[in-house]
């Protein structure tokens, strides 16, 4: 980790804009984006398709230059000092891209470490350390093609950690993972934050944002539509998931037992079968107590939980707003 003052923001984006193409084909991906990520903080960068998230991550990782504005990582300018920025930064773009299935996890780490200009001695020391950090020691010498999605995602993270970055760009860390794998990956990410790593996270899942981030930056058509604490964001979103309870026979008497920690209910009934959606405002043990109270004593056949995708939240929040303003 680089010796920076705790007062220096880990990421500092000031008035960034990016235009692609020329004249008739011109597309303004970013108009005016300003925000900071403090040392040891996790900020979720959110926005619907085409909002500008990828463009911003590319600017921060020095792959793309901005058309205007400045981006700094640990105080280093992404355009003037790209090498220093790359030294401070770990970039984890997950999914199935980029790993070599026929190589072991250890050999993938060696390969990417060498591309990242780490020396042999450094790699000998770092590889076991990052394998331990992401809990892949036991699988280190297995071919990656035998890995689950969660293990692959862990390996991506390990590669991003090889250079001991103090800032991580984490793109969709839990996409395609089952709930257990997703939760265990989140715990690894939280452990990194506790070690002081600053993280800019993009995700389509509210649960990731809720469990990981302290603050939210919401992009819409290339401008920051909203910046707020996680508490404020989830309050505005209203609910974290849809729980669908299906049963047969007598409906629970919801009028007699008005729901508490659940925001709304929708009831569907066909013949003898019924289906009720409830929307918990947040995940807590109280939600399960409340579900037990509402549905105790009726014939429940199954319960399904669908974590809310952020698109649903944006549907209510991504109105035109500031995005209508003229580009600078
Ligand atoms: N190389 C490019 N040439 C032209 N237009 C581009 C280019 N890259 C991005 N854009 C446009 O810039 C806008 C922002 O794209 P960007 O990929 O940054 O959005 P995003 O928020 O990452 O979306 P998604 O969630 O769909 O990945 C879009 O309108 C996109 O079509």
How many beta strands in the DSSP annotation?
14
Bound molecules: adenosine-5'-triphosphate
CA(first)-CA(last) distance: 36 Å
Mean pLDDT equals 85
Rg from Cα = 23 Å
Q: Uncertain runs with pLDDT below 50, 5 residues or more?
A: 318-328
Strand content: 25-35%
What characterizes the major β-sheet?
6 strands, mixed
Please tally the helical runs, counting DSSP H or I stretches of 4 or more residues: 10
- CATH 2nd-level architecture of the largest domain: 3-Layer(aba) Sandwich
Specify the CATH class of the largest domain: Alpha Beta
Per CATH, the superfamily of the largest domain is P-loop containing nucleotide triphosphate hydrolases
Q: What is the chains' assembly state?
A: single chain
**What form results from the Cα inertia axes?**
globular
GO cellular component, one term: plasma membrane
GO molecular function: ATP binding; ATP hydrolysis activity
Membrane topology: Peripheral membrane protein
Domain ABC transporter: 11-246
Description:
This protein is of the alpha/beta class and 328 residues long. The protein has 2 domains: 11-236, Rossmann fold; 241-307, 2-Layer Sandwich (Alpha-Beta Plaits), CATH 3.30.70. Helices cover 31% and strands 29% of the residues. It is built from 10 helices and 14 strands. The protein is globular, with a radius of gyration of 23 Å. The two termini are 36 Å apart. Residues 318-328 have low confidence and may be disordered. It is a peripheral membrane protein. One of its GO terms (cellular component) is plasma membrane.
